[in-house]
Structures are given as structure tokens and as C-alpha cells.
Here is the input.
Amino acid sequence: MSKHPLLCFLFFLSFSQLLLSSSSSFSNSTKICSHAQSLALLKLKNSFSIKNSYSEYFKHYHLPNYPKTEYWKEGSDCCSWDGVTCDLVTGHVIELDLSCSWLSGTIHSNSTLFLFPNLRSLNLAFNNFSGSSVSDGFGRFSSLTHLNLSYSSFSGRISPEISHLSSLVSLDLSWNVGAEFALDGFDSLVQNLTKLQKLHLRGVSISSVFPNSLLNRSSLISLDLSSCRLHGKFPDHDIHLLKLQLLYLVENYYLSGNFPRFSENNSLIDLVLQSTNFSGELRTSMGNLKSLQTLDLSHCQFSGSIPASLGSIPASLGNLKSLQALDLSDCQFSGSIPASLENLTQITTLNLEWNHFSGKIPNIFYNLRNLNFLYLAGNNLSGQIPPSIGNLTNLHYLDVFQNQLEGAIPSPVNGFSSLSYVDLGYNLLNGTIPSWLYTLPSLVELDLSHNKLIGHIGEFQFDSLEKIDLSMNELHGSIPTSIFELVNLSSVYLFSNNLSGFPETSVHSNSMLPKIQILDLSHNNISGIFSWNVGKDTLHYLNLSYNSIIGFEMHPWSSMEILDLHSNLLQGPLPTPPNSTYFFSVSHNKLSGEISP
Here is the structure.
């Protein structure tokens, strides 16, 4: 589960008060910036070029960004420049925030950046300082309380001098993937930086065991050591970090341990252990995590059943009443899904896929009105899909792929107007496809494959669909004409049904299915002549094998790679495939004539 937006939010939050102070402090100030400071800042500006290396990232996460240093002008008060804050009494530069400023270049050891010994806050996040290291110079800022160098392409060895910044409250070096601590460098940092509230080192190589002393830092609020190559065993004693709200240890594949034990008076909001080697059964004491909003144990080795305390909410404790995201996917959990999960009324994401859960899906969804994502795929669940699922009016993703579910597909009580992804494939569902599945205005993917569905395929009402998979059922009748109006459709799998006949359509239209890439109609009872002019520039896989097609009109498909027409009733001369085709099969037909050299 990605946490990048949350980390960005935290780093902006860390500096928000300082920045607000800066903007108000100088609204009516006089010129107080010294010539030496102005000169040093201008030299710093000129040492970089301007290049927006994170444009797509900024756009995706709506991060404010612009080239701040472009507005630094010689002869003006540097204390009024964007990203610069000065002490009102001394005029010293005390804060420098050049985050998201499009800077590109190398910070050398003699950079004028290191000529500001009074800095309390330095934020260089989201720039491109490729070729730079976290050098000794950063250890000169003895008054520094906030240091953020995240997402800035620092690499190489992190200087031990950084552990001398004993006043640091917040340190963020996240996603400088080429950066690494020297031997014992991380231990020194943990021992010396006793005031830390926020420590984010995601993606930085630590390559050591988890330091027990870190769990004695009572000031810690946010700790992210994801993808740091930690190994060994996580401490198994009670954790008494009463202020700790966020703990991320993602993708430390060789870090083992049991589910962490937190004291009852904890403040934990997010616990993310995804892709580690943690194992064992979940502790019933996890009910102590009263403020928890996110619990992600996916891709671990946890086993056993889910304790009832996970879902139960005793009135006296209100356990887990704030839980919004629960991800236990791809573990070794077994047993039944506890009905007590119905008490998690704030939950938006419930992911239990790829475990060994068995039994029926409990009818727990009446009160889970905030649920957006429901993943139960890859288990051994049986019985019918519970009717209460029809109350999930805010649901976007519904995935119960590869279980043993049977019976008819239930109809929603109030409509699934927000559904974009439906995967009920590889089950034992029967009956007809309900009409509501054809009328979802936001549906992007529909997979009902490998079931026992019967009846006709209805007409689709909206063109948002990109993928349709109804293969391996017992559907019959013609292919609906509405399919040709789905302008965003990229893949259609209708193979292994009892479909017959091609629908009448405008065979000469160049606009039919302009984005189609895969079309598989094999193993049906389709007869007649295939003349669909679809996917002129996009279609690369077309399979019509095992039908009763008597004619085939070859079109100039520029991207065709696989064309399978074998086991039909094709007559006449051998068709010539497009030049881009590398697999072409027309065996078991009634073709005649010579094979072209």
C-alpha cells in the first residue's frame, strides 16, 4: 500500500508553522539581509540549473511547485525571497525551504549552502541533486531542528557528521535510493539524536539489525524505515512509545519477528509491515490499538485465524473504531472471516485476498457504508455472495476472484453507481448476468469468467469499459452490438461459450473499437464471415479458432502479432497475414491454392 502522499503531507506539515511565520514576519519588515548572505544565496542559485524532474509526480499528488530561486534578485532583501526566512533581530538566515523548486545539479563540499551556520530548518526535498552525497557539510548546522533531503537523488555514503546534529527533531532522507549509512553509522545516529520526533529513511540502505535503542526514544511520533535492508529480529518486548503514531517497516524482506506488542496507552495510527518476514499468529492484544486507522500486514508470514478482537468494539474500549484500511493479503491466514468485522464502520479498504480463508462470506456489510475496496480473491470461500453486499453504495472495487462461490449474482439494493472494477471470475456462480452489470456508469473492468452463467449477453449502456472477460461460461446468442460502441475497450475475452453468429454492424467504419488490443472469440459456435474492421492500429491478438467461420476478411492491422484462425470452415485461397504477425495458424480449415514463398 503506497504511502507516498502521506509522507509528502507529513513533510509539508513539519514546516507549515515555520513557513506561515516567515510569510507574516516580513510583510512589513525593513531590509535586514547582509550582503554576505545575499551573495552566498545567489551563488547557491547559480550553482543549479532549473529542470522540473518531478513534473508527473507533482501533478499526480497535487504538490505545489515552482522555481523559487528564479525570483531571487540581486539588490533586493534576501530575507523576503521565496523560501528564505531570517531572524528578525539578527538578520541571520534561519530557514531555507527550496523543496519542489526544480533545482538540478550537484551540491559540492564547498557549496555556499554550508555558509549558513544559524540554520534551524533546511528543506531541499523533491529536487535533483544527482551526484551529491550527504556530506560532512550538513553536520555543520549545529542549530538545525528540521532536515529534509527526501526525493532528491542523493547517493553514496552518508557522513557520520549528521549524527552530531543533536538538536534535530525531524530528519527525512527518504527515497535517496543510492544513499547508505557507513558501518555503525545508523547506530550512532540513533544514540545521538535523542530529540527526534520524525525519522524517515525509506529507501536508504542501513543494512543492519533493528536497533533496540530506537524503541526507547519516547519523543518519536513518526518512524519510517521501509526498504532499508534491515535484518535480524524485531524486538519482542512491549513498546512504550506513547507518542508514536506512524510505524512503517515495508520491504525489509529479512526482518523477522512477531506482531509488535504495544502498551495500552499507545497513539498508533498507521502500522505497516508489508513485505517483511514477520510471522506467527496475531495477538489478541492488538485490540489495544484504539487509534489505529491503517493496518497493513500484507505479504508477510502471519498465520492462524483473525482474532475476534480485531473486529470487536467493546463499548468500554472502542477498539479499532477508527480503522479505515485493513490489508492482510498474501499471508497464511486460515479459518473463517470473523463476523465481528461488521463493527469496523469507518473502514474504506478491506483486503483479505490470497490467504486460506474458508467457509461463507459473513453477511457483514450492512454497516460498512464507507467501504470503497473489497478484495477477497484467492481463498477457499464457499456459499453465496451475501445480500448485504448490495448496500455498499460507495464501492469502487469488488474482487472475489478464484473461490468456490455459488448461486446467482446478487442485485444491489441502492445501485453500485461507483463501481469501476468487478472480478467474480473462477467461481461456481450460475444463473444469468444481472441487468445492473450492464448499466454501471463508471465500470472499467468486468470479469465473470470461469463460472456457470447462462443466457444472453445484454447490451452495455456506458462506454467506460476497458476490459470484458465472460469466457468459460455457458452463454449463448449473438455478441451484442453495443460492444462496438465501447470506444475505450482494449480487451474482450468471450471464448469457450455457446455464442453464435456475428452481429450486423458497419463493417467499413474505421472508428469501431479504436483501442482494442485483444479479441478472443475462440471455442464458440460462431458462423458466417468475419469482416469486422476493428483496432486498425492497436489490435495485436485475434483468436477465432474452433468456430464455424466460412470467410475471413483480412484488414491492414499494423500491430497484429498473433492471428489464430485454425479449426474453422474457411474456404478459398490462403489469407496473407499482416507483416507484423509472428504467429499465424489456419490449420484444420478448407483452404486451397498455393502457399506464397
Remarks:
- The two ends are 54 Å apart (CA to CA).
